[in-house]
Design goal:
single chain; alpha+beta; globular
């Protein structure tokens, strides 16, 4: 009998006779030899997503978890919090340089926001695009206007599967141009100033390349409106470099293409090319070449002067200016990481990352420090460039401060509230953020942000949630997390540590990756122990949560220190560190984790791999392992195998639940999917830590929907409250500024891994 049919027979038999609360999972004897070491893998049969018994097992596990969710009294109050937030997301914005107004309207009863268009302030709104009726589980990934507002491009996905299509809408006729651009779309859309077409990035369509290669070999294309997508022009492609990825920006009258080619150690080589918009047949101009030694990257052009950012002999970066073909220091390196710069009248504003939070400084035209921008508290901020005058807008948020836009006068160094859409939703004044530096197990100082109600009592009884990441050179920033507001309101504490492996410091990533990955877990354990020692909490009131690489973190710390935590959320995780390179994009992560095919790295991986370090008859914390069936980054085998191992190792202990969400990919695909995921996360933690719900568990969903519908109706009639057309236009302009700033802010956080901390890469100018 084949192993497949053998496991299916065992599985069906076990379902019929199961007496445990979990679906029974057969152990099929199997092992593999790595570097002379036999590694048992009795649940390897769960890797086959197409096997009928695996599908049945997924359904049974989901049903088991759903029963728990249905009986959890905390989930509905959490759901209510997210619906409140959802209503506030409705925004009206200006379309390009035109008089058109686009309204992104959030109907509480719909999965996705609906787009409405006004030709100008005197015309009524007309429905432009409704993703809820376009196709099942449609999600708008991004939208981009042409310069004069004639067209709108929409990148949409189904169920968060990250294989979107680009739709083109004519904003004069409100019709969709018939042929969508299909394939694996990623990243940026940049319109040509003529509005005749746009540039975009595409990965190969599955089936047109060898299996697995659809995750690699992207190309930059130019699409001309009205032409079939199969005739799109390839602007840039590299068939020799599998892991070269592109990012697009407009740079004056040229297209700037930034490419990153990753080495085995995940160190990217950066190239930048420029293509004139008025001569697209010209070969892209290479700004600098690739030879080991230095890195210098074109950052910005201000008043006919080119500014560059470099990490050459400056791990925290410095900014250079170019004069007569030579480079000179403009802003020298300091102990703080330079992230970006922009013009502000006669000032130059430089944004720094300091111990994981933002600091903004102003310099004069000679590079001399003038003043520091007075941000409210330790949080994250993005500043909007204004070449003409020293007044601008800053978008800011912190752990206890929802995203808001401030007007800023550089001359007076004064920050004033401008647009706070969530002000009535969350009262920041009741809470505070404290910053601590604690020592890890080896003495390394670890930044830690704590958010909680004011006048906190350190009695060892407070519920604390550690939210960690620690990987891929990505800083884990103290941003506002809407889904954790029920936790704060129920007297919980949020702890955000900057773990090694992230990008909070220049050398932080190297200290928490590959053979040093255990440092990441040690840092998290040290934070947990410090919180207990300082009487913020106790192990019975301590939870840990993380997603993606953070899911690996939570899996590792719970298997290494099961006594330290009461509850664990492992979201969209990597948990089998021996077989992770075999699926999807796993081989790309070998630079982060190391390859199991290398004897030394195999030993390291096996030592901490969560799946391989579960021990029989050990009581583990209450655990929820969550993933998406449409996740094309991390294979669901990680979730299945870890769940099976934990459930069988400790069948009579705390609940071990798994949910493989059929409607999401690696991230939520809609507000409703996010609402369900996060209400389950927080509801699970509050239930297992025996917290009191922030709101009455008896509140009915019908009342919830009635309230949100009323709010939606108010927003829909928002325009009627304005006395004049100018009042309405001013409000639209205000929301437009906030919307674009918010997108800038989100993109900076999203692409924080794509910084210029690229190791030693050269510039053709410096290498001469």
């Amino acid at each position: 009998m084949s192993q497949k049919f053998f496991s299916l027979a065992l599985f069906l038999t076990s379902l019929a006779t199961a007496a445990q609360p979990y679906p029974e999972t057969p152990m099929v004897p199997f092992s593999e030899i790595y570097h002379g070491v036999e590694v048992a893998d009795p649940y390897q049969w769960l890797e086959n997503s197409m096997d009928p018994c695996v599908k049945a097992w997924d359904q049974a596990q989901n049903a088991c978890s759903q029963e728990y969710f249905d009986e959890n009294p905390h989930i509905l109050p959490c759901f209510q919090h997210f619906n409140k937030l959802y209503a506030y997301e409705t925004t009206s914005i200006n379309v390009g340089d035109s008089e058109k107004i686009l309204t992104i309207f959030c109907d509480p009863e719909e999965e996705q926001p609906i787009l409405y268009l006004q030709k100008d302030a005197d015309h009524p709104q007309q429905e432009l695009f409704n993703p809820n009726t376009y196709s099942k589980n449609t999600h708008i990934e991004q939208l981009s206007f042409s310069y004069d507002g004639a067209y709108l491009s929409l990148s949409v996905t189904q169920g968060g599967n990250e294989t979107p299509e680009i739709l083109i809408l004519n904003l004069e006729t409100l019709n969709q141009i018939k042929e969508p651009l299909k394939g694996w779309r990623h990243g940026d859309v940049v319109w040509h100033p003529s509005e005749q077409g746009f540039f975009y990035i595409a990965f190969p369509i599955k089936g047109t390349v060898a299996e697995g290669d659809e995750y690699f070999y992207p190309s930059v294309f130019y699409h001309r409106i009205g032409k079939p997508s199969k005739k799109d022009t390839i602007v840039q492609h590299d068939s020799e470099n599998k892991t070269k990825f592109y990012f697009l920006h407009s740079y004056g009258d040229q297209l700037l293409i930034t490419s990153l080619t990753y080495t085995e150690l995940l160190i990217p080589t950066i190239e930048q090319h420029l293509i004139p918009f008025d001569n697209m047949t010209a070969s892209p101009e290479l700004i600098y070449s690739q030879a080991p030694g230095e890195c210098i990257v074109l950052l910005k052009e201000i008043n006919n002067t080119n500014y560059y950012i470099t990490n050459y002999e400056a791990p925290n970066f410095r900014i250079l200016i170019e004069k007569d073909g030579n480079y000179y220091d403009f802003i020298p390196e300091s102990k703080k990481i330079i992230q970006s710069m922009c013009a502000l009248g006669k000032f130059i504003a430089v944004t720094y990352l300091v111990d994981g939070h933002t600091e903004i400084k102003l310099f004069n035209s000679n590079g001399q420090f003038v003043k520091k921008v007075p941000l409210p508290e330790n949080g994250i901020a993005t500043i909007l460039e204004n070449n003409e005058e020293p007044n601008t807008y800053i978008i800011y948020e912190s752990l206890t401060h929802p995203s808001a836009t401030y007007s800023y006068s550089a001359k007076e160094n004064l920050l004033k509230p401008f647009h706070s859409p969530y002000e009535s939703y969350f009262d920041s004044k009741r809470y505070e953020v404290t910053f601590k530096m604690i020592k890890s197990l080896d003495g390394t100082a670890i930044p830690l942000y704590l958010a909680h109600k004011k006048n906190l009592k350190l009695n060892g009884k407070n519920p604390v949630l550690i939210d960690g990441y620690g990987g891929f050179d990505v800083p884990h920033l103290p941003v506002f997390q809407q889904f954790l507001t029920p936790w704060l309101e129920a007297n919980g504490i949020i702890a955000i540590p900057c773990l090694r492996g992230g990008g909070e410091y220049a050398n932080w990533h190297e200290q928490g990756s590959r053979e040093f990955k255990q440092n990441t877990f040690d840092d998290c354990i040290a934070v947990a122990e410090w919180l207990v020692k300082k009487k913020y909490t106790s192990p019975s009131q301590l939870a840990v949560m993380g997603s993606s690489n953070g899911g690996l973190l939570t899996g590792a710390v719970m298997t290494q220190r099961p006594d330290l935590f009461r509850a664990v959320i492992s979201g969209f995780p990597v948990l089998d560190m021996i077989r992770y390179p075999n699926y999807y994009m796993g081989m790309v992560w070998e630079g982060e984790y190391g390859s199991p095919h290398d004897a030394q790295m195999f030993s390291t991986l096996l030592q901490y791999s969560p799946y391989h370090n579960v021990k029989d008859n050990q009581v583990y914390p209450s655990t929820l392992i969550y993933g998406g069936q449409n996740d094309l980054r991390i294979h669901p085998m990680h979730i299945r195998k870890m769940t099976a191992r934990l459930q069988n190792a400790s069948p009579g202990g705390n609940p071990i639940l798994m949910y493989l969400d059929p409607a999401v990919g690696h991230v939520p695909s809609s507000f409703k999917s996010a609402q369900n995921i996060f209400s389950r996360y927080v509801g699970f933690l509050m239930q297992e830590l025996e917290m009191s719900p922030a709101e009455s568990k008896k509140e009915k969903r019908s009342l919830l929907i009635d309230n949100t519908k009323k709010r939606a109706a108010e927003l829909q009639l928002r325009r009627s409250v304005f006395h004049t057309k100018d009042d309405y236009l001013q409000d639209v302009q205000k929301q437009t500024k906030h919307y674009h700033l918010k997108k800038m802010h989100q993109n900076r956080i999203k692409h924080s891994a794509v910084s210029f901390k690229v190791g030693d890469i050269p510039c053709r100018h410096c290498s001469q």
